[in-house]
Amino acid sequence: MRKIYFLSFVLFLFIINSAQATFHLYKNYFNYYSGDINDTLPKSLIFFVPVITYAPETNVALGISGICSYQKPSSDTSYLQLTAIYTFNQQTILDAALRHYFHSNKNLLLANTVYKNFPEYFYGLGNSTPDSLSQLISTHSLRVNIEWYQQIKSYWYVGGVINMLDYFSIHANDPNKIPLPELGNNGGYTLGLGASILHDNRDNAFNATKGWYLCANVVSFNQQLGSAYNFVKSNVDARYYFRTNSKTVLAGQLLYQGNSGNVPFWQTAALGGSNMMRGLYAGRYRDNYLLAAQSEWRYQFSKKWGFTTFAALGKVANTMNELDVHNVHASYGIGFRRRITKNNKINIRIDVARSGSATNFYVNLAEAF
Questions:
Q1: What is the DSSP string of 333-353?
Q2: What is the model's pTM?
Q3: Percentage with pLDDT > 70 across the chain
Q4: Pairing state of beta strands 269-271 and 285-287?
Q5: At CA 129, angle to CA 183 and CA 237, rounded to 5?
Q6: Is the dihedral of CA 156, 314, 290, 140 positive or negative?
Q7: Residue 20 confidence (pLDDT) above 50
Q8: Rounded to an integer, what distance in angstroms lies between the CA atom of residue 300 and that of residue 112?
Q9: Average pLDDT, integer, range 215-227
C-alpha cells in the first residue's frame, strides 16, 4: 500500500458534494452591490477573481481564485475555496480547501489538497541562512490533508487527521549553490495518522471580530503505514479577536510547529508566506521547530473599504531549546480591504509587507488569519 491516492478521490467526492450544494443554493444568492438582499433565504455565495502574476522563474502566470460558501439550517457557514494557476513555463498549482459542517454542527470536515508542479527557492536549513546561497529547485508534489471532528460540547471538537504528501520529483537547478539535505533530496512519500482537538467560537470564519480559535494536533508518520520516513509532527494554532469599537478589531495569532525523527527537508517547519510572517518569502527559513506570533489592527472606515496594519515575529530552530528570543525575525506591513459580501464579510485582501531588506505584495481572498 505504497501510495493511497484514494485519499484524493475521497476529498474530490466531498468537494463535488459541497459544490453541488452551493450551486443548488445559487438561486438564493443575494446581490450585495445592488442591495437586493433577502435575509430569510439561506446565505450562499459564489465569487471568483482572476490571478495575474509575473516572476523570472515562472514567466507570466494566469489563474483564478474563488470561494463558494453556503449555510444549511442550524449550521455554521461551510465553504469551498479553489485556486488554479498556470504559467507560461508550463507550471501548475491547484489548491482546494473545504470546510463542511454536518448534522447541525455535530460533525466537521476540514480537507485540503494541493497539487504543485512549480519552482521554489530553497535557502538551506536553519534560522540564519544567507540569501546568496539560495537554490531554485523544481518540484512536483501532491498534498492531501483530511481532518474529521466530532463535537463534544459547544464550540469544542475532537477528531482524527490523515496527512499525505508525495514529492514525485525534486531537481536542483544549480549544483554550485547550497546542496539539498540528504533526507528528502530525491523526493519521497509520507503518510501520517494523528489526533486533533479544536475550539472555535469565532463569530465569522472569514473575517472574525470576536472569539477564540484553537487547534492542536499530533500526527505520526510511520513506515508501517507506507511512509518512506518515520517522524512525528505537532502543531498548535491559537488566535484571538477583540472588537475595540464599532469600526476597529484587534487580532492576534500564535503558531507553533515541531518535528522529531527522520524528517525530510520538505516536511520541516517553514517560516514566511502570505498568512504568517508576510514580507518573508514562503519557506525562507526552515528547520525542525517553529514559533511565530503576529498581531493585526483592522479598521473598517466605510461599508466596503477597510485598512489594516500588522506586525509579526518568528524563528525556526533545530531543537526546541533553541526557540529563544535571540535572532528573531520581524516583519510588518499595511493593507487595504475591499468587502465583496455583506453577511459573510469576505474581503479581497491587498497587503504590502517588509522583512529585513525584502518587500512582498499579496492579493488574496479572506483574511490572513
A1: EEEEEEE--SSS--EEEEEEE
A2: 0.86
A3: 88
A4: antiparallel
A5: 75
A6: positive
A7: no
A8: 30
A9: 96
